[in-house]
Design a protein that fits this description.
By secondary structure, this protein is α/β, with parallel strands linked by helices. The protein has one domain (22-262): Class I glutamine amidotransferase (GATase) domain (Rossmann fold, 3-Layer(aba) Sandwich). It is built from 6 helices and 13 strands. It has a 7-stranded mixed beta sheet, sandwiched between helices. Strands 2-3 form a two-stranded antiparallel ribbon. It has a two-stranded antiparallel ribbon with strand order 7-10.
Length: 263
């Protein structure tokens, strides 16, 4: 009994230490708030959610974060100092246009102010965009421009169909972020322009910037040209013969974010 008690106390103590040291990654569910009808005809949230395990979700990316000691959180409301408190990494993916939601929650000046203040105090902001036909860029760029990024109204790495996977391929060499992934797949994306202290992290073969980063106060902002690492492109759907390593890229990205939170 004594041995069991000591073991239980030790285990409880270890769990407490882990929870105390765990960092939180918060995924926006407010600016991205798509819904479709379920089998019963009722509205159901979908697209880029932690809990989605089909091709549309971020459950695999979430597992990568958890493996690095992060706790997962979602934010159903507009960001404020209060509801971002305790968040180390805040991710906004593919904000809705009217094509995707009848009443989209556009990013407003107050949102830009709140997010920028949070980053300035040490937060890590990750912005996943999309090609211009599938993301609401005008308001998203109000936020991006704050950090020296602009998501451009263009189309890069266009892939016509599954017979042209290579058109979405990017070879990676000596990259400071993607240290284990040698070739990735990123299709139908926009390019990113950078100004000020914003710097490219990854370019495609045409020289267009697809990932960029900027220091902002004590924090860091990161722009990525596509939702990219959702389940469809990290779960083995990509034919092995092409050698794409999006699974490794997801691990590399999370490891980079982990390092940034420790700086």
């Amino acid at each position: 009994m004594k041995t069991t008690l000591i073991y239980s106390l030790a285990l409880s103590s270890a769990l407490f230490v882990f929870e105390a040291n765990a960092q939180t990654v918060t995924l926006d569910y407010y600016f991205n708030h798509e819904a479709h009808k379920d089998s019963k005809g009722e509205p159901e949230r979908f697209h880029y959610l932690w809990e989605e395990t089909d091709n549309n979700g971020y459950s695999i990316l979430g597992e990568n974060f958890k493996s690095q000691g992060f706790k997962l959180k979602s934010l159903e409301n507009a960001p404020t100092a209060t509801n971002l408190k305790g968040t180390s990494v805040y991710i906004i993916v593919d904000p809705d246009s009217k094509k995707e939601s009848p009443n989209p929650n556009y990013i407003q000046p107050t949102d830009v102010k709140n997010i920028a203040a949070w980053v300035k105090q040490g937060g890590i902001l990750v912005m996943f965009a999309n090609d211009s036909a599938n993301v609401e860029l005008p308001h998203f760029n109000k936020l991006a421009n704050t950090f020296g990024f602009n998501f451009n109204n263009d189309l890069q790495n266009h892939v016509v169909d599954d017979n042209h996977f290579e058109d979405g391929g990017i070879i990676i060499k000596n990259n400071p972020v993607f240290k284990t992934a040698g070739k990735i797949y990123m299709k139908d994306v926009c390019s990113i322009s950078t100004t000020g202290n914003a710097k490219p992290v990854l370019k495609n073969a045409a020289g267009a910037t697809l990932i960029a980063t900027a220091q902002y106060g004590k924090g860091t902002a990161i722009a990525i040209a596509d939702p990219w690492l959702y389940n469809e492109y990290t779960n083995g759907r990509l034919p092995a013969k092409y050698g794409f390593e999006n699974d490794k890229a997801a691990q590399d990205l999370v490891a980079w974010l982990k390092r940034l939170t420790a700086e």
